[in-house]
Amino acid sequence: MRVLQLNTSDHGGGAQAIAYSLHRAYALRGHDSAIAVGTKRGSDPDVYEIPRSGTLQRARSRYGSTLRGHEDFDFPGTAHLLDLPPWTPDVVHAHNLHAGYFDLRMLPGIARQRPLLLTLHDQWLYTGHCAHPLGHERWREGCGNCPNLGVYPALLRDGTAWNLRRKASIYEGMRVRVATPSRWLMERVHDSVLASAVVESRVIPNGVDLQIFSPGDRAEARRAIGLPVDSPVVMFAANQTRTNPFKDYPTIARAAEILGARGRELTLACVGDPGPDRQLGAVLLRHFANQGEPPALVPFYRAADLYLHAARADTFPNTVLESLACGTPVVATAVGGIPEQVDDGETGLLAPLGDAAALADAVERLLDDSGRRQAMANRAAAVARERYGLDAMVDPYEAWLEELADSRT
């Protein structure tokens, strides 16, 4: 089987990690595998950057679209992506198609040429511009009067109603298969403008490499990254920790302040955005730079007594799975697909959106009960082995893509 995946880039966030994990697994299983990306960051010869070309006329047209609040789809290199590998793909598996590299208007043509599977990692394909609408449901009714124009991918003006109508017209008459990592996201897909194009859908949870993400010696991990060996450690990780609009750093900081005011001595390690340490009462809030590839986070997961994940929107965050696999219980906001990852009361505790006091209470309860915390740690590692290994993700994708490839012969 010859599989061509599409994605924003080969390395970076969660969607990139999932696509690249699939790519490596397909190759190891004897398939021809390649990824076409908007931006190539690594050196893998089977990752191809989609060519970007343009004229002054195109530049002017794109500038005009930007001023009107219209999403920019003018990327002519999209027309050549099937020709990038040295072989012709049997199937195309697309991931994130936003971030300025892909002409969505060409999606129906790709679907006519090859079986097309879309994996949604966020909600952009059925909104007027945003990756996550942050609690606003205008996408169900056609968008317009958007309260979140600055949310990624941002718009200068409110062209959201026009953008969504254009997406609906693109999907009209298409035949596409759709996968999501969570039931929560799939339910929204079936309520969206994309629904008419979906001929088959499956929920396939993300997976992580259990050879890398696994329990380890806590004291050794703490010494390796300079965290205190004899006092509690809580961690959080995200790209651009403090400014990421879909995470909720302000609530994490408020929870730390609450714990600090109670005299709860601990270190809260926030990984993903460097900055000065802050002393919040008894709590030391430390900021660590982005560690690069996900395996570099393993010592932080192993060092932590708890993983604290506050979010405003999240589909099925890899960091939660990685933490579980390392045997670190999770205290998280119950948004998006997170309740499907964290078994409340068994592998961690869930709190309402934006409720810093509830997060602080959950952290304190588990830090005060070492027996319960250890039982959760054991169960977290077991659940990761049962549900979230790489094979649990790769096997259903491989079988599905083989079905689609065989349907062409």
Tag the structure with descriptive keywords:
13 helices; 409 residues; single chain; globular; seven-stranded parallel sheet; alpha/beta; seven-stranded mixed sheet
As laid out across the biggest beta sheet, the strand order is 3-2-1-4-5-6-7
Largest sheet: 7 strands, parallel
Radius of gyration: 22 Å
Task: List segments where confidence is low: pLDDT < 50 over at least 5 consecutive residues.
Answer: none
Distance between the termini: 12 Å
What is the percent of helical residues?
25-40%
Share of residues in strands: 15-25%
The tally of beta strands, per DSSP, is 14
Helix-strand topology string:
EHEEHEHEHEHEHEHEEEHEHEHEHHH
Count of helices?
13
Outline: globular
> What's the overall average pLDDT, rounded?
95
Structural class: alpha/beta
Task: Outline the fold blueprint.
Elements: E1 2-9, H1 14-28, E2 32-39, E3 47-49, H2 56-68, E4 91-94, H3 107-113, E5 116-119, H4 160-171, E6 176-180, H5 183-189, E7 198-203, H6 218-225, E8 233-237, H7 249-261, E9 266-271, E10 275-280, E11 283-288, H8 298-303, E12 306-309, H9 318-325, E13 330-333, H10 338-341, E14 348-351, H11 356-368, H12 370-387, H13 390-407
Helix pairs in contact: 1-13, 7-11, 9-12
Quickly describe the structure:
The chain has 13 helices and 14 strands. It has 409 residues and is of the alpha/beta class.
